[in-house]
UniProtKB/TrEMBL annotation:
The keyword RNA-binding does not apply. Keywords: DNA replication. This is UmuC domain-containing protein. It comes from the Bacteria. Belongs to the DNA polymerase type-Y family. Residues 17-181 form the UmuC domain. PROSITE patterns: UMUC.
Length: 382
């Protein structure tokens, strides 16, 4: 029998809103919406009460809330800051996206001479006081229960004792399941499965038969089971660099409308490749629909680190798999094969483009990621 683990989750609620308020404390308590382009992507509780939510057009949100633009660089910086704080307590730290983090604190008592829950309380306090970020945290024997508990909790750290997980989460609404979309939630509720206790009564094979692999995971989590390991922060940082997830709003449900987000991903990947003196040899693109169906395709490339070549390759893959009429929830773009050596070494005739990209990199380093933008991106409204 395996020893019980001490796995914690830290949830930074509405992180883009928290960053806006950290920069402008006068916005505390006021309705705040954060937008990417013409669409709201995050809101405060006050804005939600005013009828503003993710997907609301900025033109309408401005009448009910203070609207601020999303700052991807600020989000990236705070991710690094949070990772550095959590790494003070354990090397096993994983960023789960959406402002959620996991920590494996098993065995830390021998080093710190403190119970793991005390370490979690200390880490949460540091995030609130040093980084000025609203933080909720919980500890359990697995990732999912800890995250769901933290998402529904308050600033107090919650500890779920080993063996108590099924009874503790029984009353949780199914909406708290990590990664559950609105369509999937609606399907669960149509089956009379409103709470995790309801879900736990359904045999795992039946859930898997109806909802695929996700259904089996939901069934396990509703029973308090989650043996997944916590990845290390260094590993996670490297994965994130080559794997970009792009949530699409209701206004981006076409190949043309999704273009600006895809170009932004190509720019980030191109910059990462140039910084490492590497080139992309293969690109993989995955589309996740609102009903949970996924489509993926990859393509081998002429090795490149250039933004527009990556963008054109990603666009071709998207055209090839954008075939269903169901709305798209997320597109992920990944460099699945990298080759050492800068492109300019192989194609000296195109050195002008390489110099241009390096010049743009330098300008963005000094003045910000959006100091210089391609005309195609501006035309897309982002």
């Amino acid at each position: 029998m395996h020893a019980a683990r001490d796995v914690a989750s830290v949830v930074l609620s509405d992180l883009p809103v928290a960053l806006v308020r950290r920069a402008d404390p006068a916005l505390q308590g006021r309705p705040v919406a954060v937008a990417r382009g013409a669409t709201v992507v995050a809101v405060s509780a006050e804005a939600h009460a005013e009828g503003v939510g993710p997907g609301t057009p900025v033109s309408r949100a401005r009448h009910r809330a203070v609207v601020r633009p999303l700052d991807p660089e600020a989000v990236a910086r705070v991710r690094a800051e949070v990772g550095a704080v959590l790494n003070r307590y354990t090397p096993r730290v994983e960023s789960a996206g959406g402002g959620a983090w996991y920590l494996d604190l098993s065995g830390t008592r021998r080093y710190f001479r403190k119970p793991p829950v005390d370490l979690l309380s200390e880490a949460s306090l540091v995030l609130r006081e040093e980084l000025r970020l609203p933080t909720r945290a919980a500890m359990s024997s697995g990732k999912a229960v800890a995250r769901m508990t933290a998402a529904l909790g308050d600033e107090r750290v919650t500890r779920i004792l080993p063996g108590a997980e099924p009874s503790f989460v029984r009353g949780f609404p199914v909406s708290v399941l990590p990664g559950l979309g609105a369509v999937q939630r609606s399907r669960l509720e149509r089956l009379g499965l409103y709470r995790l206790g309801d879900l736990a009564t359904v045999p795992l094979p039946r859930l898997e038969g109806v909802f695929g692999a996700s259904g089996r995971l939901w069934g396990q989590w509703s029973r308090g089971l989650d043996p997944r390991p916590v990845a290390g922060w260094a590993e996670e940082a490297d994965i994130d660099q080559w794997y970009l997830s792009l949530p699409l709003s209701p206004q981006e449900q076409s190949l043309t409308a999704a273009g600006p987000a895809l170009l932004g991903a190509a720019e980030r990947l191109g910059r990462a490749l140039r910084d490492r003196a590497e080139r992309a040899g293969r690109l993989r693109l995955t589309v996740v629909h609102r009903d949970g169906v996924e489509r993926a395709r990859s393509a081998r490339l002429e090795p490149t680190d250039r933004d527009f070549e990556l963008f054109e390759a990603a666009s071709a893959l998207l055209r090839a798999i954008w075939e269903r009429r169901v709305a798209v929830r997320r597109v992920t773009v990944a460099v699945s094969e990298r080759i050492s050596g800068g492109q300019g070494e192989l194609f000296p005739a195109d050195a002008r483009m390489d110099r241009l990209l390096r010049g743009l990199d330098a300008v963005r380093d000094r003045f910000g990621a959006y100091a210089v933008q391609w005309g195609r991106r501006l035309d897309g409204g982002t």
